[in-house]
Amino acid sequence: MENINKGDTVQHITSRLNYVVDSIENYDGIIVIFTEGSICKCIPINEVKKIKSHTLSDYFLKLFRGEKLTDDEDFELTSKLKPLKLVTILPLDPNSLKL
User: Is 10 within 8 Å of 50 (Cβ atoms)?
Assistant: First the structure.
């Protein structure tokens, strides 16, 4: 198992949601993590995996280099972009202007 510390980003294996570790406790031989945020979660440590925190630019650099994103990376990129409700603006064609 990876060394997980306070402040690390972990991903819940089932829900694929990311959390930041606030503390790690041991209750009756079961190690659990408590997460930061307005809704604190208590998750058994065997249900999470440590992930490297990525910025959007890390994913785009990987794509521009022609590398394929893993399923987890693709899911995280999609979940970060979806709430932004991005639109595409096409460049103006000067020939389409009528004077």
Answer: yes
